[in-house]
User: Fold these one by one.
Assistant:
Number 1:
Amino acid sequence: MLDWTDRFCRYFLRLISGRAVLYTEMVTTSALLHGDREYLLRFDPLEHPVALQLGGSDPGELAQSARFGEQWGYDEINLNLGCPSDRVQSGRFGACLMAEPKLVAECIQAMIDSVEVPVTVKQRIGIDHLDSYQQLCDFIGILSSAGCATFIIHARKAWLSGLSPKENREIPPLDYATVYRLKREFAHLEIIINGGITTPTACAKHLTQVDGVMIGREAYHNPWMLVETEARLYGGAQLTSNREQVIQRLVPFVRRELARGVPLNRITRHILGLYHGQPGARLWRRYLSEHSGKNGATAELLLAAAEQLIK
Ligand SMILES: Cc1cc2nc3c(=O)[nH]c(=O)nc-3n(C[C@H](O)[C@H](O)[C@H](O)COP(=O)(O)O)c2cc1C
C-alpha cells in the first residue's frame, strides 16, 4: 500500500505475524529502471516472505524490473492491475490495464520468462463498463494461459473517472460471491480474496471458499488482528508474543535505522495502531506522535511510551 507498507512498516508487521506474506508498496518500472534501486528495493531478511509489487505495462521493462526484484531476494513479483489513480492511468498501468488483456498477458509472459519466483497479479473484478462476469473470466483465462497461476482479487470494481482512489476503495460495492464463483470455475488457480476483510472470523469464512485472504487497511490500523487471525487459523500456539515483546524486538531495529540517519517518526508512524482497541491506545498514539519528531529522540522512546500504559 503506497506510503504505508514501506520496509519499516513491514519489519514491524513481521514481528507481529510470522506467516503473512507481506507486500511492498507499488514500485513503478520507470522508478526501478531509472531511480535509486537500493532505496526502492532494500528490505530486511526478517521480512520474508515478501513480495515486490510492480506497476508498469511495458513487457521488457517489467521483465527487467522483475529480475531486479528476484536478484534482491523478493519471494514473489506481483503486477498491479487494481490501482485507479489518475497518475497511474496516465502512465498506462494499474486498473486501466484490465481493458488490455493481451498486453497484460505479454507482460506476464515476459516476467515469467525472466524469473524463477512466482509472478502474480492483483486486480479488480471489473472496471467501468467492462464489468460482466464473462469479461472477468475472459481476462483471467488469458492471463492464466500466459502462465499466471495466482490472482489476488479486490472484490469490487473500479470507476476510472469520477471517483478518487479512496472512493474507489469504498463506494463500488463488495462482491465476494463473484470471487467465490471464480474459484469454483477456475479451481486449478490460486484465488486470493481482498477487500473489507477485518476480522479473524471473516478470514476463516472466506477460506472455506477461496485459497487465501489479503488484508489491507485493517492490518495497518489494527495490526494485532494478524495475531488473532493466525491463532484462529493455525491454533492458539501462535499466540506466543504480546505487544510489549513486539516493542522490545523492534527497538534494536530502530536503533540501527536511527544510526543510518532515518528519522524516528518514519518508523513510529506505522506502529500507532499497535494498541488499537486496548486500554491506553490513545495514550500510546499521543505519546509517540508528540515525541517522535523531537530532536534527539531515540529508540528508547518506544519503551517509554509502553511504560506510560502500565502506570
Ligand atoms: C493508503 C493505501 C495505499 C494503497 N496502495 C496500494 C498499492 O500500492 N497497490 C495495491 O495493489 N493496492 C493498494 N491499495 C489497495 C489495498 O491493497 C486494498 O486492495 C484495498 O485497501 C482493499 O482492501 P482492504 O479493505 O483490506 O483495505 C492501497 C490502499 C490504501 C488504503
Number 2:
Amino acid sequence: MRLSNAALALAILGLGVLEVRAESRHADLLIENARVVTMDETFRVIEGGTIAIEGTRILAVGGGEVSQEFEAAQTIDAGGDIVMPGMINTHTHASMTIFRGLGDDVPDRLRRFIFPLEAMVVNADNVRKGALLGAVEMVLSGATTFVDMYYFEDEVARAAKTVGVRAILGETIIGFPAPDAKEAYGGLAYAKKFIREFADDDLIVPALAPHAPYTMDREHLAEVAGAARELGVPVLLHLSETQAEIDHIATEFQMSPVEYIDTVGLLTNELVAAHCIFVDGDDIELMKAKGVGVSHNIVSNIKAGKGVAPVLEMLEAGVDVGLGTDGPMSGNTLDMMGLLGYTAKLHKLAKLDRRVMPAKDVVEMATIGGARAVNMEDRIGSLEVGKLADLIIVDTDSVHMIPMYDVYSALVYAAKAHDVHTVIINGQQIVRNRELLTVDVEKVKRDVLVLTEQIAKKAEDL
Ligand SMILES: [Zn+2]
C-alpha cells in the first residue's frame, strides 16, 4: 500500500491520520457486473466480473475486486450480461451488400452472373457505400474485425475506419480485367499502392488477395507470393472451394489445389484460405505444416450446396480455423452470431453425431481461433491484459436467453444478432444500446437503396 504524499506528510507530522487509502489506478473505462467470457487459454468465465480499459488496451480482467482498484472516467454496468471478445469474420466481400438477394438460385453463378454484373456495375463509389452497409451490419451483430477481399479496397478501408471497425483488407488480383484494373492482374499494382497507403494504420491491415487458383495463371500466383514475402503482408485466397476447381487443377497439374498453391510459394503462415471444402488428409497435414489459417464459411457453403469442409479433421490436426460469413451475395447476411448455430449443427448432422463440434469450440473459432487464423492472436480474440480492447456485450435478458445454464450453449444455440447491445473496438465505444455511434445508419441504408434500381435493371439482362 502506498501513501499519498499529503497523507505521508501528515503521518510524519504526527497529526493523526485516521484513514490511509490505497492509491487507485486510472482507467478510461470500466465494465462492471459482467459475465466475462474471456476465451483465454483456460476458458475462464468470470461471474460478476470487471474489465478495465485504458486507451486502446485492456488494463485488467477479473472479479468485482478489480472495480475497487480503479478510478474510471466512464463506467458501464453490464447488469450480468455476457462480455466477450468481439468476433472475427475471417472471410467476406462487404461491398457486395449492394447485390444482396440478386440471382440467388442461378447455377454456375460466379461466371454466368456475378463476374459480368460486377464488370458492369462496380466502381469506387458503390464499393464504399456497400462496404459501409456491410461494416454496419457486421458491427451490430458482434464482429469487431473482418477480413475482406474485393476491388477498390482503399474505399473499403475508408468505410471500415468511418465505422470504427478493425479490418484485414485484401485487394483482389484476378486473371482478367476487373472494375479497378483495366489489365488482367492489374490488381497487383493497385494492391501495392493500397498497402503503402495503409501500412501504419491502427485499424487496417492491408493484404494481397489473389482470387483463386483457377482464376489466375501459375506465373502470377508465384508473383503474388513473392510480393507478399517482400511486403510482409497477409494473403487472402479462395481455396479448394468447388469440385470444378479440383478437377481443373488435377487435369492441368496432376495435384490438389493445396499442393499446387504450395508449389508457387503461397502456402505459408501468412495465408488465410477461405472454404477449403475439398481437402483430404494429405492436404490438411500440409496446411498444418505450413501454418495456414482457414476460414470456414458454413452458411455460404450450405446455400450454394457445395459441401461440408472437413473442419473437425482440421481442428484435430491442429490447423487454425476461424469462421466467416462470406460475401452477402453468398451467405446473404454478415451475421456472425447467426453463424454459430449453423456451424455446430451442420457438423453434427454431417457426422450423425451430436457430440461433435460442441458449442465451446464454435465460440473459440469465432474469437481466438479466428485471431490465430489471421496471426493476430497476440492482439485480439480473447479478453486478456495487454490485448486490444475489442469486445461486445450480449444481452442475457432476452426471452430466448432465459435461463442460461451454459454460456457457450446460450451463445451458439440461442443468441441472436440483436442481442449484441454494446460494441467496443480499439477501446472506443462504437455501439451503445444497439445504436451505432459512428455513422448515420439511415443514410448508409438510403445510399445503397438509391443504387438498387439501376443494378436490378442491369441484372435483368444476365
Ligand atoms: Zn468469398
Number 3:
Amino acid sequence: MLDNSLEALDRAHLVHPVVALRAHERRGVTVLESGKGCYLSDNQGNELLDGFAGLWCVNAGYGHKSVVAAAAEQMERLPYATGYFHYGSEPAIRLAAELAELAPRDLDHVFFTLGGSDAVDSVIRLVRYYWNAKGEPNKKHFIALEAGYHGSSSNGSGLTALPMFHDKFDVPMPWQHHIPSPNPYRHPAGPDGNAVIAASVQALRDKVAEVGPDKVAAFIMEPIQGSGGVIVPPDGFAKAMETTCRELGILFIVDEVITAFGRTGPMFACEHEGLNPDFMTIAKGLTSGYAPMGAVLMAKHIYDVIADAASDGVPLGHGLTYSGHPVSAAVGLEVLKLYRGGMIENSIKVGAYFEERLRFFRDHPLVGDIRSKGLLAAIELVSDKKTKAKFPSEKKLASKLSEAGYRNKLIFRAFPDGTLGFAPPICITETEIDLLIDRVDATLKVISEA
Ligand SMILES: Cc1ncc(COP(=O)(O)O)c(C=O)c1O
C-alpha cells in the first residue's frame, strides 16, 4: 500500500534547508500546524513555546488578524504589481518611505528583495557598480567577520564564515576575506572588551594592508552574529569598525537581517551605537515572517553615484520579479504598526527582564557563557568551564538538546557546538519569559543527567 502520510511524502520529496539530508530522512519531519502569540502547535497535539520566533523572524508573534486582513485585502485588490518599467504599487512606495524615515540617518533609498540572502547579494552587486561608477574598478574585495552569516546565495555564502556553507561549495572566493570574530569569551584578547575592539580594528587595518588599500570595496558585519552562535561584540565594537572603514576609504555595510525590528530592543540595532552605514540589509522581522520580503537600504550618497552613472537613460541592470511585492509590502506596513504601537517598548522592557533571568544559569556546571542583547540571547554549554572545552561532536549534543527542549514544550535553536540560541517573539510577556526559563532549566537537567 502506498504511504501518503505527510512524513512519507516529506521524506520522499522535500529537500529541507540546512539539515543533514540522510539524518533527516531517518528522523522524519515535525509538522507544525498553527500558531498563536508565542505558541506553536504541531500535528501531534503538542503546544510549544516558540523561543526562536520561527527562524528569528516572527517578531510580532503568530495569529495577528490585522496582518492577515491587510494581506487578504491587498491580494483581492491587486495581488501583484511589477516595479519594472516605472510601475509601482502603493504599499511598496509607502513601506519604502516608512523605512527611510525609521532607518539610520543617511539611509533613504530602499530596494526590496525576497529575503536576506538576495538582499546581501544585491548589496554585493551594487557595491561593485558603485566603485566602477566612481572610477575605482580595482575596489572589488570584501571583508567580513569569522562566524558571520550573510545568507547562502552563491556570492553571499562566501562572506558567511561558517564551515558548512563553504565545504564543497567552492567559497570563499579570492575576493572574500575574514577577520576574527569579536567574541569576548573566546577571542585571544578577551574577555576585556576594549582589548577585543583594539585587536579587531588592527585586524581590519592589517587585512586591508594585506589585500591592498586600493582594492578593498567594503566591510560587512552583523551587529550581533546570529547564526554564528549569537555572539555579542563588546559595546563600541561596531562604531570602532565604522570609524576604521571611513579612515580606510571602504564602505561600511551592516547586516540587520536578524537584529532589526526590535529584536535587541530598539527598531534597529544600529541605534545602540548611532551607526550610520552606507548600506543596511533587512528581512525577517520586516514582515514578521508572514510573507517573504527583504530589503537593501542605501545611503543617499551611494544612491546618487549609482543613479548618475546611468544618467544617459540606460536602466540599472538589477531586478527581481517580486521586488516590492504588494502583498508582502502590505504585510510589512501592518507589522510596522504593531511594532510602533507598543511592541518596541515591550521588547525593551521584557528584553531587560529576559537578560536578568538568564543570569539564573550562570553557576550551572555546563554553562560556559551567557550572551544577550534584549530578546536575542545564547547559552553556550561547555564540557569544562575552566578550559572552555566544547563537547565532542560524537556526543550529538545539538540533537539531544532540541529533543529534550521539545519534550519540555520549548523550541530554541540548538547550535551544532552545544549553544542554545533564543529569539522569542518581541510580544512575549514576563510571565512567558519565566516559563521559557523554567523549560530551559528542565532541558538542561535532562542533558546533565544523560
Ligand atoms: C544576518 C543574516 N543575513 C542574511 C541572512 C539570509 O537571509 P534569508 O535566509 O532570508 O535568505 C540571514 C538569515 O538568517 C541572516 O541571519
Number 4:
Amino acid sequence: MSFETSIGSIEIRNPLILASGVLGTTYSTLQRAYEAGLGAVITKSIGPRPRSGNPNPSVFALQEIRSLINSIGLANPGYQSFRHDIEYLVKSETPTIVSIFGENQTEFSEVLDGLKDLNILGFELNFSCPNTEKGGSQIGTDSETVFNIVKTLKSKTDLPLWVKLTPNVSDIIEIANAAVRGGCDALVAINTIKAMVIDIQTKQPILGFKRGGLSGSAIKPVGVRYIYDLYESLGGRIPLIGVGGIYKGEDVVEYLLAGATAVEIGSAIGVAYPENMIRFITMKIKKYLKEHNYSSVGEITGGAHK
Ligand SMILES: Cc1cc2nc3c(=O)[nH]c(=O)nc-3n(C[C@H](O)[C@H](O)[C@H](O)COP(=O)(O)O)c2cc1C
C-alpha cells in the first residue's frame, strides 16, 4: 500500500506534514517530529527581523472543544539567526519547507533571498501578516498584493512556493486565483480563524493580546469546506494542502476526499506525543484504504466530488 505523495515536484514519504508554528523554531523539535513519522516539516514563520512575542498568556486551551486560541503572532528570531537551525535540519535530512512572512513585498523578498540557497524543499508564504502598505489589514486579504508578491518571489527562485491562505476573508477563491496567477505551486488552507475568549469573573479578555486565532477540532469543518470549494473551483489544477483540526486518521481522509493532496497537522502535535499520534493516524488511513479497495493514498483525493 503506497503512502508516497507528490505535491507538484515535491515528493514525500507520506501526506502528513507538520504545520507551521506549533513546535516553535528549534531544529531539534522539528527533526523529532519528522523522525516520529511525518512526511515533512514546516518551520515557524520567519520574518526579516527578530520579533518578540505578544504578552502572556498567549495560548489558551479550550478543552471542551479540543481547540486552542493563540496570540503568539509572528514572534520569531529573524531569518539571519534562524538560518543556522535550517542548516541543521537539512544536514539531518529532514525534508523541510520554510515558512516566511513580511509586511510587504520588499520584506518577503529579503527573507526569501536570505534563505533560498539552502537545500530545502520549498517555501510556504504566510500571508496572515499585517500589510503596512495597505493600512494594516492582513496581506492575504488583498488579491492584488497576493498576486504581486507571489509573482515577484517566483521570479527569484526555482524552489516551489506554497501559499497559505487565511480563512478571514469574504472570498477565498478570489485570493486563491490571484496566487495561482502569480505562479504559486500549491495552496494551503487554512490558517487560524479570528477569535477571542473572555473570563466572565474578571470580565477581561484572557489572552494578554486580547484577540487571537482559533485552531484545533473547532475549525476542521471550515478547513474541509475551503478545500472542497478550492478543489471545485480550481478543478484539481493545483495541489491543495488541508490544515485545521486534524487529530485522527478519519480527519485526514475527510480532507483528502474534499480535494487535498496532503495535510498539515498543528495543534494536535503540540499536545500529544507525535510518535503515537502519527502511528494511530497512519493505521486508520491504511484500514480505510483497505476497506475501500484503494492501493495508494493518492487515489482518495477529490473522492467527494465524484
Ligand atoms: C501556537 C500556534 C502557533 C502558530 N504559528 C504559526 C506560524 O508561525 N505560521 C503559520 O503560518 N501558522 C501558524 N499557526 C497556524 C497553524 O500552522 C495552522 O494553520 C492552524 O493551527 C490550524 O491547524 P491545526 O488546527 O491543526 O492547529 C500556528 C498555530 C498555533 C496553534
